[in-house]
What we know:
Chain A is mainly alpha-helical.
Amino acid sequence: MSSxxxxxxxxxxxxxxxxxxxxxxxxxxxLLWSQGQSSTxxxxxxxxxxxxYLVDLHHVVARDKYMSNTHVATAGxxxxxxxxxxxxxxxxxxxxxxxxxxxxxxxxxxxxxxxVMIRRRNPPPNLSLGKWQRLPKSLMVFSLSFFILTLPATGxxxxxxxxxxxxxxxxxxxxxxxxxMFFGMTWGGPMKHAFAGALHLGLHRRQDRFGDGQSTGLKAxxxxxxxxxxxxxxxxxxxxxxxxxxxxxxxxCENNCPAFAAGQPLNPKKLIxxxxxxxxxxxxxxxxxxxxxxxxxxxxxxGAIIPIVNILVESETLWSCTTCRACVEACPMxxxxxxxxxxxxxxxxxxxxxxxxxxNEILENLSATDNPNGYAPxxxxxxxxxxxxxxxxxxxxxxxxxxxxxxxxxxxxxFDMRNQRTLRAIIKLLRAANVDFAVLGDAECDSGDLARRLxxxxxxxxxxxxxxxxxxxxxxxxxxTADPHAFHCLKNEYGELGGNYNVLHHTGFFxxxxxxxxxxxxxxxxxxxxxxxxxxxxxxNGEYDAPRFLLESMGVKIxxxxxxxxxxxxxxxxGGAPVTDIPGEQRIPDMRMADVTETKAxxxxxxxxxxxxxxxxxVEPRPEVKDIAELMLDALIExxxxxxxxxxxxxxx
Amino acid sequence: xxNDNLSVISLVSIGEHPTSxxxxxxxxxxxxxxxxxxxxxxxxxxxxxxxxxxxxRQQTAxxxxxxMGLAEINLLEMPEQADAILVLAEHLKQQNSDIIxxxxxxxxxxxxxxxxxxxxxxxxxxxxxxxxDILSVDEVNKQAEVLQxxxxxxxxxxxxxxxxxxxxxxxxxxxxxxxxxxxxxxQFEATLGGIFADQESPLWQTTDAKxxxxxxxxxKAKTAADRFKAATAKASGGxxxxxxxxxxxxxxxxxxxxxxxxx
Lengths: 653, 263
């Protein structure tokens, strides 16, 4: 028997055995996921996997051009090679075309693996080491072995080249390569991401995210269930468990996480890996990436039916999150970190009653007074005593109305003197544009955003239902609000409870008015200005353009920060983070203000009351913080009574 | 502290939020439960005299005590007009409790603050007001060491013979957060209370409370630091002194009246 005959027979046995083991591993992995709670199975999503991989996933990967090209070569080469290997060596199709194709695909994969290797020579801190450092070598060995193996078959080299020595080397290389690429895929190796990732793309819990869609609202839970929220890994939905397995430990989430950067004990990547440990059982000693700041790796362990908090993950880790969604936006595998964090927070709050910091006080205030700081509900409109606002209601004596074009949602800015200035500006602008608007007055409650993100789903649903009941009594076309958190809740989270509205953020609404020339802005002022994207307007609702359009209509050339739009850094004010107040090494708003200062801007325009407070809380000297509505009011060209435009006419658009 | 054989009952009422007037977990009663849980853990019994209301908000308020980790609240059912003290006393006489915890004053209803006193009288027990902590219980000698709150943060340690009634002060340890899940799943164990009509209150005349005149605060401060001090400092009781002797006392009172321009 010649060495080539031996190789071909050996490969048949080896690859068949490897495929069988891979299949067994796959079944074991599926059983791990199936420990989770039931959730809709989106079978049709499975057909969409190739498209979602090539379009949606690569859209995210391509933010790093080097890596996306590398991945196309390596993954494309591998997938093709794997199919060809099975055809050639398992089904033993003796087609010359396939041999040539395998030669090409393994070469492609080899080229890709060189770039993986280069990147891993001095790996940046967001990349995991350990088994991930082994992967480029495995990729190389796999691709090179099959490349050399295929050469004689194509006739480029005579058969039996190299004799038994090369055959032995190839056997070793192929066992290593197949072991990593096939067996490792379902037995917990780095290639697990390909297997779990593909299924996760198909069976994703938020199918609406694909094809340029959006799905950012938290999902409601049944408050009569026997357990509220997630205590143990098995309490997650099965497709959430699957999603954790899809993680490639690329650390893009870590690079974007404001809490991690501030030295608070959260690293989204480690959190997802901890969930995998919880699901499969074990400890975190082998985790080879950055730890949670301030917490040593190797000190925690978990299991599928072992409670997570303070055994596998410290509660401070969960409560450091600002729910800014930067990690979710950055994740090429489309993992939903925020959903998982809020699920675990729900158990902490609803079952254990352990919301840290001022959480308890804030939630009690929301229960008793419908606003987080416990002001008397009947003082909600005190700020507008001089504004002569039209209020929705049924009392004709008080000139209350049941119908208006716009419902102006005030939000908790009503109780805050800084943000009342923004509200006053908005009202002046609405009046300047002759908008028919009314407010809910004292009947408005907090939107429930804060309660929900602190895990208090019961409080959220009560507040939301109360608001929906109030709003359903009146007729209006649009809700306009200056608070992106309320905007997000009303637009994306009330629907599940039966409240479907057309909601606009004030920047979106005003952009339309400026477009229609109903508001005229002076564009002659030269302002050194940058714009800070609020998470709940930008990443949560994809609104990056309207605020910029308004600023440009005022003649401003925005000095964009390096991290803007979808990668904008959070102000630190979301998700109840100021309430739970988990200590770190620095404050998130200070870091954001440093971003602002870097642009040499003198004013930072904001579009969210929370951002306003967080950024104004940074010690002086610092750039001035102004809401876009305030800037617009400064630039407003008011018509005189006869409709004659004031002499200083703004040109431009 | 292991007090396995100690019988502690905490009385709870439905509170009322001062600005929104919504029913809620009463602040002092919640502190009483916190104290009871610290003392005897799950052996703490909780008693509410009244009925489970149809009003969901009243029910939620009562349930929020369950959310502190109690398995059940004993409900002593009585009509709204009944005299709660007599109903409670009759029930508690059969319980052989060592310690009965209450708030200092209810947040709704008559809110007279008399309940712990009258209850102690009916039961023939000692009564300690404004307790912030129960430091230790000596079950052999039937004695407890309690910490009592006095004005301006002062504390007094007292030894009390068991059994006793203690009203828990706002200065006691903050109550733990009430969790929604356990609150919804906890049980009410209802028993029918005795029938004791309230003999007195129908004879009372009630009028709305009038706002008491309040002395205007004149801040003479010139600097920000002074204003800060004026805003944060508690009314200093520098003028307070103990005067002995009839002559001196009378003189002190007269001086004050003159100083205030009243004589």
